[in-house]
Amino acid sequence: MNPSEKIRVAIIDDNKEFLESLKKHLLFFPKVEICGTASQYKQAKDLLLNKNLDLVFLDIEMPCKNGFELLDEVRKKGSTFSVIFYTAYDKYMIQALRESAFDYILKPINMEELKNAIERFKAQRNESTSLTQLPLYQGIQGMPEIIALPSNLGLKFIDKNRILLFRCINGGLLEKSSWEVLLTDYTTLKLGANTTADRIVQLMNKDRFLQINQSCIINLNYLNMVEYKTRSCLLIPPFNNLELTVSRTHLSKLREDFEVF
After folding, report:
1. DSSP codes joined into one string, 173-189
2. Quick check: pTM over 0.90?
3. Which superfamily, per CATH, for 7-133?
4. How confident is the model at residue 113, as a pLDDT?
5. Residues 170-198: b if buried by 16+ CB within 10 A, e if exposed
């Protein structure tokens, strides 16, 4: 992401008065582009899944399901935007921190507080951009490692270093599940219908790519830590917002392969 690009923002709040107020406040920031607003759960979910967003202002107390539940659903489908929770209550602050919230703002919106949050996000984005532009793994003599992956359209030639992970997407009742590649710029590539986890690991080299559950294979160069208690897989910044969990079976194998003490 180019630091000069606008920050693509969405606002989710069932209170339309607060929603419009925040929207008017954000219009004072030329670097902010409001890509959509939603006041109902289904509408909000569709917005978060179908827009390429950088930052979401998310209310916590909403009808049907709360903001935490909404965030959990869209993150499980691969959404990676940052979140600023904004609410009339401070009792949710600890849980917001546990959800890796970028910030937490109380209603009514204070312009100075909002400005500080936007500036912090811009600074973090600039730092993240510099990280993603530099490959974290360099092959022999710094040359890219090009590999051909079978997609639905043909062979796609990709540098291994740009591959963050492979994941299996549930196709629902009428569509078969399929594997896709998630790259470090967050673009995706759907793989051929006959792709399997075993074939991916074999193709990519098991010393570089690790299967953590039945539907996810990660590039070890981007892995930061695996927590035994929660079985969470934490990636290095700026990819640490992705929620990944290693299965019990794969965790046991991981410990056998890597624990030396």
Report:
1. SSS--EEEEEETTS-EE
2. no
3. Response regulator (3.40.50.2300)
4. 87
5. eeeeeeeebbbbbbbebeebebeeebebe
Alpha helices, H only, 65-193: 67-76, 93-98, 111-133
Q: What is the mean pLDDT of residues 57-81?
A: 82
Residue type, 261: F
Range(s) within the chain of domains with CATH label 3.40.50.2300: 7-133
Q: Considering the chain, tell me which residue range(s) the CATH 2.40.50.1020 domain(s) occupy.
A: 140-258
Q: How far is CA 59 from CA 23, 54, 71, 85, 221, in A?
A: 13, 17, 11, 6, 35
What token pair was written down for 218?
Answer: 């990660």
Please, are residues 218 and 164 in contact by the beta-carbon 8 Å criterion? yes
Distances (CA, A) of 87 to 13, 17, 93: 9, 13, 10
Give me the CATH topology for the region 140-258.
Answer: OB fold (Dihydrolipoamide Acetyltransferase, E2P) (2.40.50)
What does the block give as tokens for 225?
């830590």
Residue 5 main-chain phi, psi, to 5 deg: -70, 155
pLDDT band at 95 (very low <50, low <70, confident <90, very high): low
